[in-house]
Amino acid sequence: MPSTKTQASRRLSILSTEEVDSLYGLPHFNDGERHIHFDLSPKERETIDAARTITAGVHLVLQLGYFKAKAQFFVFGLDHVQPDIAHILTRYFPGRLMAEVGALSKPTRLAQQRTILELLDYRMSGSDDKQALIAFAQRAAMLSTQPKFILREVLEHLSSQRIVAPGYTSLQDLVSQAVTDERKRVTRMLDAALPTDLQQSLNSLLHADDKIHLINVLKHEASDFSNKELRREVSRRKQLSPLYAFAQSFLIDASLSSESIKYYAGLVQFYTIYKLRRMDISTVRLYLLCFAFHRFRQINDNLIEAFIHLVGQFDKHAKLAAKTAMQQASEEANRRVGRDSCKKPQKRP
């Protein structure tokens, strides 16, 4: 069984440290935000007033305000939230001192969490919710296997259902499983549908010919619209054409979204050839097929852009040549008129 450290190292890196903190970090309010988040409804104020001690009352307002901001509960030291406590004391407990507010016991803290959930009509997720969330994440993965997309969809779903989101590592595991399940679904279909000749074509992309890997040749994009670069693009298009023809129908049959295709294609760009060659063969074939499909369309777009550019250049040169020819003709006509006017008229006999 893998250790916790190993599991952590294998988790998908979905959000940056700053993004994780914005979701799960203790809120840091300015004065305006304190007025908004620590504002109490009549029912909330009644609940606060019923608190037995100043410590319980202040902590309840703190957790209520933090929950309104992030729909999460927090454990914190009083020294980290003193500006918030000062605001709450002035606003709701005038005349009381900071020194009167102490730490809250765990049983009281958990009881306050239940009170806040009831006040704001939220609930913690249960075992049934977990299974439903797994199914939801799998459906989201069929729309896009981008991990961040799935995570955002899951968070929005939890918010709409007024369920407190589990911790970030739990969501990482959930998204990772959804991505894996979706990839396995598609690779099973690909294994059954991919002809032998195209299997060999995909395998050959990772093999070196004269120390140059074909996949690196296909990754290379035209640097300009010169004849040399465009001929290379046409050659790359020709190499990818059989794979693209198969991918056109297969990717539709597999219900693979355009976002998932881009994601899988991007992994070919992201991973080194060494890493790709060490992957499961069915997985890497899926990535390569999506890369071939995406790259073929990209080449088509490049060739169309080049055609438009070259036609534009031809039109520009043609207009310039026509303008130059007209100027030359006009100048020649003027010279002829000048010569004719200088000729003396002949006398009649």
Please outline the helices and strands:
Elements: H1 4-10, H2 17-24, H3 31-37, H4 42-49, H5 54-70, H6 82-92, H7 106-120, H8 127-143, H9 147-160, H10 168-193, H11 196-204, E1 208-209, E2 212-213, H12 214-219, H13 227-253, H14 258-270, H15 273-277, H16 281-342
Antiparallel strand pairs: 1-2
Helix pairs in contact: 5-7, 8-9, 8-10, 10-16, 13-16, 14-16
How would you portray this structure in words?
The protein has 349 residues and is mainly alpha-helical. It folds into 3 domains: 12-120, no CATH class; 127-193; 196-316, no CATH class. 72% of the residues lie in helices and 1% in strands. The protein is built from 16 helices and 2 strands. It has helices at residues 4-10, 17-24, 31-37, 42-49, 54-70, 82-92, 106-120, 127-143, 147-160, 168-193, 196-204, 214-219, 227-253, 258-270, 273-277, 281-342, and strands at residues 208-209, 212-213. The protein has a two-stranded antiparallel ribbon with strand order 1-2. A hairpin with a 2-residue loop joins β1 and β2. The longest helix is centred in the last third of the chain and has 62 residues, at 281-342. The model is unreliable at 1-6 (pLDDT under 50).
Key structural traits:
16 helices; 2 strands; two-stranded antiparallel sheet; elongated; single chain; 72% helix; 349 residues; mainly alpha
Largest sheet: 2 strands, antiparallel
The total strand number stands at: 2
Work out the helicity level. over 70%
The separation of the N and C termini measures 126 Å
Strand order of the largest sheet: 1-2
Assembly type of the shown chains? single chain
Based on secondary structure, the structural category is: mainly alpha
Low-confidence stretches are: 1-6
Mean pLDDT, all residues: 88
Strand-residue fraction? under 5%
Return the domain count. 3
Cα-based radius of gyration, to the nearest Å: 35 Å
- Enumerate how many helices there are, as a single number: 16
Order of helices and strands: HHHHHHHHHHHEEHHHHH
Shape: elongated
